[in-house]
Amino acid sequence: MNNPITDTLHIDELIKMALREDISNEDITTNAVMREYKKGTVDLICKQDGVICGLHVFARTFEILDKDTEIQLFYEDGDFVKRGAHIAKVTGDIRVLLSGERTALNYLQRMSGIATYTRQVADLLKGSKTKLLDTRKTTPNMRIFEKYAVKVGGGVNHRYNLSDGILLKDNHIGAAGSVTKAVQMAREYAPFVRKIEVEVENLDMCREALDAGADIIMLDNMAVEDMKTAVNMIGGRALTECSGNVTKENISNIIDTGVDYVSSGALTHSAPIMDLSLKNLHAID
C-alpha cells in the first residue's frame, strides 16, 4: 500500500503487538463457533460525522492475520464522512474478520477521532498566520499513528521524540541554573544545524531567552496580554510558540497575539474516538 504510515518499517511490529495483546493464545469465542475456514465479508460503517483516518492501518491489521484478506476502501484518509457512510468492505476468512475486528477498529476509531478534533481546531485558526502543532503527549506505542492523524486533520507535527530537537523546559533550565546557561550549554553540545527552543513563563524569562539567542521561544501558560507583549518584544528575532492547556474552546483567544505556532496536547490526549463499526458479517461462496 502506498501510504506514508504503512511504508514505515516498524508499523507492522506495532500492529502485531496490539494483536498479541488481544489474542494472547487464541480467540476462544471465534474458534468455538467457526471451527474451519469459511469465506465471508463484513462492512465498515460510519456512525457519526467526522474525518476518517487510519484506513490503511485498519486494512493492514487484517492482512497481517491473513495476507489473502481483501479490503475495498471507498474513502481516503482525510475525507469528511457522514453518519451511515459505507467506508470499506473486508472479505476473507471469517475467523480473521472476527479476531481482527477490535484491534483494527481501535486504531481507526482513535486516529479518526484525533483527525476530526484536529480539523475542528485547525479551522478556528484559518485566516491567521498561526499554525497548529501537536505535542509528545501521546499514548505509549501509538505516537506514529496519532501524529499522522494530526497531519491528516490539518495540524503540524512538533518534534517526534527527544532526539528530534532541543526544547529547554522549566526543569532543564532549573538543572542548568538559568535560561542563559541552558542555551549556552545547548549551543556547545548540539550540532550547529539544530534549533534551540526555550520554554518561558513570564516576560523576564522571555527577554533572557531572546538575549541568549534562542531560535524559538515558547510562551507557556502566559496571559493573553503578556503573550502580545512578548511577541512585540521578540519582534521576529525568534519564532514564537504558545502552549498551555490549549483546546478548541479557548484557542480563539490566542489568534490575535500574533504567535507563529500554538501547540495543543489536547489534539492527542483528549480527542474523543470516532464511532465506527463492522456490520453485516455473512458467509459467501
Give the tags:
elongated, 4-stranded antiparallel sheet, 285 residues, single chain, alpha/beta, 6-stranded parallel sheet
Stretches where pLDDT falls below 50 for ≥5 residues?
none
* CA(first)-CA(last) distance: 27 Å
Query: Considering DSSP H and I runs of 4 or more, what fraction of the residues is helical?
Result: 40-55%
How many strand segments?
Answer: 12
Strand content is 15-25%
- Rg, rounded, reads 23 Å
Question: Numbering strands along the chain, what is their spatial order in the largest sheet?
Answer: 6-11-10-9-8-7
Number of helices: 10
Order of helices and strands: HHEEHEEEHEHEHHEHEHEEHE
The 3D shape can be described as elongated
Q: What structural class do you assign from the helix and strand content?
A: alpha/beta
Largest sheet: 6 strands, parallel
Mean pLDDT across residues: 95
